[in-house]
């Protein structure tokens, strides 16, 4: 087991990792920018190192500063959390070159799954169903129109190196295609330094279903069921639940078994999430995230399985803690991502939290690093915390979530709590009858658009 882990992240995920380390008896090192000197994970860690000024590129993305922090403190492993350097294959390699353990997948798997086109080719080889699309990047000399007609309109133009909804454009007719290709390529070049784009069939009302996996790097792998992440705004998830209201046990066993078998063939190491669009009873692979997900608590609540703790233990050479047949789904869980944003305009709202009262009671969990008097800095993502609620049934879970949302108090800044208080009372949400475009349509109706 590791002696000392440096946590190369901030906010609630850094605190989540710190808690797992404490339960394993591992010493912790918090790194922080000058803006995060008073952060909760800094206060609770065994040691802390300031690694630079507020901008991420000068602190949390500053690899030399992170290496120096490891050397100063004697850390023997680095946990990257989610975001920042968590899916940076070169960072993982650099740590290895300095005899430091990267708590995450093998660099080759990070690199492979970070390239959307190569990831899709790999999925096909491994028997994972994919969205119909181009075989690779579509260049200016290719007959994009012929490819699009073969796939069938509408089509989605996607950045090969993309993420977060950037570099994605819909072409509903042949006349739309040229502009969609140009716009997506320009956005991709600006956002990722790579203008490569490819084409996929555009599904009208799919669900976003993701399968949680865990591998030992030696050919052993299991899945821990699915999460439904279909409530999204601008391709960003805001509400996740598990199990999905539209997936039954047979479908879960089939797609979960397919994914676990693929991870076994890859000899995948650590936690990961294989993401699908689901429509008319069919799953279509879209990408794989080679890190711990923001929404991992949903899986933890319905499986009673500590993903972060096991991620650390397996990175240290441990075996899978259970066999597939020992994993069972227990009840239902929902997570709401509470952001420091105006609930109608989604304008960021950094500032000081004047009052903070988290909800409590049976089946209620808060993953947050904020406290009364804490200042939400303007430099990073706006996540204040995650409210996760568990119940024996989905109906019980929804009632418990409604109660918890009415109980939580966060004053001094604007948050998205009013949106969740409305959503939990919407008939479509109560009935589980929604898709990846539902929220944007709902918000458009709320604004009169």
Would you give an account of this structure?
By secondary structure, this protein is α+β, with helices and mostly antiparallel strands. It is globular and about 60 Å long. The strands form five sheets. Strands 13-12-9-10-11-14-19-17 form an eight-stranded antiparallel beta sheet, with helices on both faces. The protein has a five-stranded parallel beta sheet with strand order 3-2-1-4-5. Helices cover 34% and strands 27% of the residues.
Brief account:
By secondary structure, the protein is α+β, with helices and mostly antiparallel strands. It has helices spanning 11-24, 40-44, 63-73, 89-97, 107-114, 116-125, 144-151, 174-192, 249-266, 296-303, 307-315, 394-407, 417-423, 427-430, 438-446; strands at residues 4-7, 27-33, 47-52, 77-79, 101-102, 155-163, 166-171, 197-201, 207-216, 221-233, 236-242, 269-279, 282-289, 332-339, 351-352, 355-357, 364-368, 375-376, 383-391, 409-411. The chain folds into three domains: 4-103, Rossmann fold, CATH 3.40.50.20; 132-201, Dna Ligase, domain 1; 207-446, ATP-grasp fold, B domain (D-amino Acid Aminotransferase, Chain A, domain 1, 2-Layer Sandwich), CATH 3.30.470.20.
Secondary-structure blueprint of this entry?
Elements: E1 4-7, H1 11-24, E2 27-33, H2 40-44, E3 47-52, H3 63-73, E4 77-79, H4 89-97, E5 101-102, H5 107-114, H6 116-125, H7 144-151, E6 155-163, E7 166-171, H8 174-192, E8 197-201, E9 207-216, E10 221-233, E11 236-242, H9 249-266, E12 269-279, E13 282-289, H10 296-303, H11 307-315, E14 332-339, E15 351-352, E16 355-357, E17 364-368, E18 375-376, E19 383-391, H12 394-407, E20 409-411, H13 417-423, H14 427-430, H15 438-446
Parallel strand pairs: 1-2, 1-4, 2-3, 4-5
Antiparallel strand pairs: 6-7, 6-8, 9-10, 9-12, 10-11, 11-14, 12-13, 14-19, 15-18, 16-20, 17-19
Helix pairs in contact: 4-5
């Amino acid at each position: 087991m590791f002696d000392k882990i440096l946590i190369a992240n901030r906010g609630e995920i850094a605190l989540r990792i710190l808690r797992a380390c404490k339960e394993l008896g591992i010493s912790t090192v918090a790194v922080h920018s000058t803006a995060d000197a008073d952060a909760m994970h800094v206060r609770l860690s065994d040691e802390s190192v300031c690694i630079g000024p507020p901008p991420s590129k000068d602190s949390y993305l500053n690899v030399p500063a992170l290496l120096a922090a490891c050397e100063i403190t004697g850390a023997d492993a680095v946990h990257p959390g989610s975001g920042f350097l968590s899916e940076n294959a070169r960072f993982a390699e650099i740590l290895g070159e300095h005899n430091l353990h990267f708590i995450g997948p093998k660099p080759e798997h990070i690199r492979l799954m970070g390239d959307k086109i190569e990831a899709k080719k790999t999925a096909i080889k491994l028997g994972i169903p994919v969205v119909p699309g181009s075989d690779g990047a579509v260049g200016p000399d290719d007959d994009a129109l012929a490819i699009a007609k073969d796939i069938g309109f509408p089509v989605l133009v996607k950045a090969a190196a993309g993420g977060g909804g950037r570099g994605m454009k819909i072409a509903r007719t042949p006349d739309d295609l040229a502009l969609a290709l140009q716009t997506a390529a320009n956005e991709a070049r600006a956002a990722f330094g790579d203008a490569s784009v490819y084409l996929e069939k555009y599904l009208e009302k799919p669900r976003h279903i993701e399968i949680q996996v865990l591998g030992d790097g030696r050919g052993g792998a299991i899945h821990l069921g699915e999460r439904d992440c279909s409530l999204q705004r601008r391709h960003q998830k805001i509400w996740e639940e598990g199990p999905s209201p539209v997936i039954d046990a047979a479908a879960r066993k089939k797609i979960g078994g397919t994914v676990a078998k693929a991870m076994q063939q890859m000899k995948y190491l650590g936690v990961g999430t294989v993401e699908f669009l689901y429509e008319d009873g069919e799953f279509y692979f879209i990408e794989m995230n080679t890190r711990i997900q923001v929404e991992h608590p949903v899986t933890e609540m319905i499986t009673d399985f500590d993903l972060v703790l096991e991620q650390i233990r397996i990175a240290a050479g441990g075996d899978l803690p259970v066999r597939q047949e020992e994993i069972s789904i227990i009840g239902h869980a929902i997570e709401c991502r509470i952001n420091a944003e105006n609930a109608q305009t989604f304008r960021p709202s950094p500032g000081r939290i004047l009052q903070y009262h988290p909800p409590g009671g049976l089946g209620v969990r808060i993953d947050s690093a904020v406290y009364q008097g804490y200042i939400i800095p303007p430099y990073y993502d706006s996540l204040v915390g995650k409210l996760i609620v568990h119940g024996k049934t989905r109906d019980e879970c929804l009632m418990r979530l409604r109660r918890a949302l009415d109980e939580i108090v966060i004053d001094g800044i604007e948050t998205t709590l009013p949106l969740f208080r409305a959503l939990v009372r919407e008939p479509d949400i109560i009935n589980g009858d929604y898709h990846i475009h539902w929220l944007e349509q709902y918000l458009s109706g709320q604004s009169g658009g």
